[in-house]
Amino acid sequence: MDFIQLYSDGFIRRRKPRWMVAMFAAAILGSSCSGGPMDRTELVLGTVCSIRILDGGSTKALDAAFARLREIEATMSANATGTVVAAVNAAAGRSPVSAPADVRHVTAKALGYAAVSRGAFDPTIGPIVKLWNIGLDGERIPSRAEITAALPLVDFRQVRIDDAAGTIFLPRAGMLLDLGAIAKGYAADEVGRILLEKRVKAAVIDLGGNVKVVGRKPDGAKWRIGIQNPFDERGAHIGVATLGGGATVVTSGVYERFFIGVDGTRYHHILDTRSGYPVRNGLVSVTVISSSSVDADGLSTTLFALGLKDGMALAESLGHVEAVFIDEAKKVYMSSGAAAVFALTDAAFTAAPLP
Ligand code: ADP
Ligand code: MG
């Protein structure tokens, strides 16, 4: 967990949270009027969310942005009780449930990534996620029998979104929708939209590592966003992406959420929809650079689940999307347009040719 820090050299680094300092600074800044720089950090969407406004800041803008984050959490979280997704899950096998347009939109986006990946990405992974509980209380290695029993419930093709009726329906009892791989990206886009609406001119949004930059930096320079070193502590980067306003950088990795089992194995939170176990394909992280954070978030998880060969092929087939894959051997594979925006700076990593 960390938050983004914009240094005087204009470079964005991610830091471990210093809660008291951050909250105190936010309180002071929050009490100022409008126009100047200000930031706020809160725990929302199960992670540390920070918004740093460099130009055109106002308390109203931050209030509106965090209110929207809490609203998204209150509708789309699969872990919390009382959310729309929880209601859809509770009614699985029985009846469709009313779901607002944004929940249907994000679900439809997730089903789109499920279709292009032929189910390697699947938002009905819920029953498997729940068995492992990775990163939550009660995380454990489930028995093979439990996984075998849960796997048939994972099937994105069965999800019914009815836009005319405004409902979502899971036809089989026990099915569970999980938007955890994509909701933070949608939230970042929403915050970006709201900040611009509130006349913010430049801002950095960091929702637990899901980064989006808004507007133009006051000095007119491009934004510089580091890509996390998956082997090092938070804030260490392997290189820098230099990007214009509206850009987003989203990473899915084995280091985000994991536990070490009694068998000594690292079990991380991106799950193989065929085996029911964490994906093991030699990758440690996949970063997507794009202008849409909902797509970058959905896609980073999708590319990770697909693996280097199929994932890179999918990234290359999409316009306006660049991808950076890192494997266990510290090799870095970049999509053909990535070199124009991303510079590898850590000599411990080597750029490798496309597979
Ligand atoms: P993060 O939450 O760290 O940004 P991701 O965006 O990669 O990471 O999302 C991982 C989450 O997505 C998991 O915690 C789980 O809720 C869900 N998930 C895990 N495996 C899959 C999968 N194969 N398809 C879709 N969602 C998945
Ligand atoms: Mg994701």
Layout of strands and helices, then pairs:
Elements: E1 3-6, E2 11-15, H1 19-31, E3 34-35, E4 38-44, E5 47-55, E6 57-58, H2 59-76, H3 84-90, E7 97-98, H4 101-116, H5 126-132, H6 144-150, E8 160-162, E9 167-169, H7 183-197, E10 202-207, E11 210-215, E12 223-228, E13 237-243, E14 248-253, E15 258-260, E16 266-268, E17 283-290, H8 293-306, H9 308-317, E18 322-327, E19 331-334, E20 342-344, E21 350-352
The structure holds adenosine-5'-diphosphate (ADP) and magnesium ion.
Adenosine-5'-diphosphate is lined by residues 121-123, 125, 129, 178, 180-181, 184, 210, 252, 256-257, 269-271, 273, 297, 300-301, 305.
Describe this structure in words.
This protein is an alpha+beta fold and 355 residues long. The chain has nine helices and 21 strands. A hairpin with a 4-residue loop joins strand 1 (3-6) and strand 2 (11-15). The strands form five sheets. Strands 4-5-10-11-14-17-18-19-21 form a nine-stranded mixed β-sheet. The chain is globular and about 55 Å long. It has a domain at 4-56 and 202-351: Roll (T-fold). The structure holds adenosine-5'-diphosphate (ADP) and magnesium ion. Adenosine-5'-diphosphate (ADP) is lined by residues 121-123, 125, 129, 178, 180-181, 184, 210, 252, 256-257, 269-271, 273, 297, 300-301, 305. Residues 121-123, 125, 129, 178, 180-181, 184, 210, 252, 256-257, 269-271, 273, 297, 300-301, 305 line the site of adenosine-5'-diphosphate.
